[in-house]
Design goal:
172 residues; 5-stranded mixed beta barrel; two-stranded antiparallel ribbon; globular
Length: 172
């Protein structure tokens, strides 16, 4: 079993790995390489019976997932270290903006194509956040991520339309 901690550049690094699933801006490979340099792409999957939605706060609207019978959300699966997870926690505003949940998903290996069931963690925005409209920049980052993994960007368009309808309903 590999050591959980190692010394690098005069500091101790947490090298234990967990599986993280990304469905929004963290699908963007360039962005993830910058934020989490130790993260490795493991494969892809789908979250069944969920849908994407843009929600947020005064700083903007960002993707989250919510239960939706018959829905499906494409995800990338990353192996992340403890250091990577702490960087993600900071980026995602954990625990005040997003919380973490665990799921079991069939993951198709990015290299092997083999399907293995993995326990993964995901960030989900707190349900009390209001729907909103994302910035063009955020949408572009997400679109690039969808292209990185060959996912159908129609899911992003559907989320945008659902959020737009939600804003109309709420009178925004």
């Amino acid at each position: 079993m590999p050591a959980r901690y190692e010394m690098a550049y005069g500091r101790v690094r947490d090298t234990a790995r967990r599986y993280y699933i990304a469905y929004g801006s963290n699908l963007n490979v360039e962005q993830m390489r910058y934020r989490c340099p130790s993260a490795r792409i493991i494969g892809t999957s789908q979250i069944p019976d969920y849908r994407l939605l843009f929600k947020g706060s005064g700083t903007g609207a960002y993707l989250t997932i919510e239960p939706s019978e018959g829905g499906s959300v494409p995800v990338a699966v990353w192996a992340v270290t403890g250091d990577d997870e702490r960087a993600l926690d900071h980026y995602e505003g954990f625990p005040s903006f997003y919380y973490k949940a665990e799921m079991e998903l069939p993951v198709t290996g990015i290299k092997s194509g083999k399907v293995r069931t993995r326990t993964v963690f995901v960030y989900i925005m707190h349900e009390d956040r209001k729907v909103g409209i994302p910035s063009k920049y955020y949408m572009d980052v997400c679109r690039e991520g969808y292209a990185d993994f060959g996912f159908d960007a129609k899911k992003l368009s559907e989320a945008f339309k659902a959020s737009l309808e939600g804003c109309r309903y709420e009178g925004k």
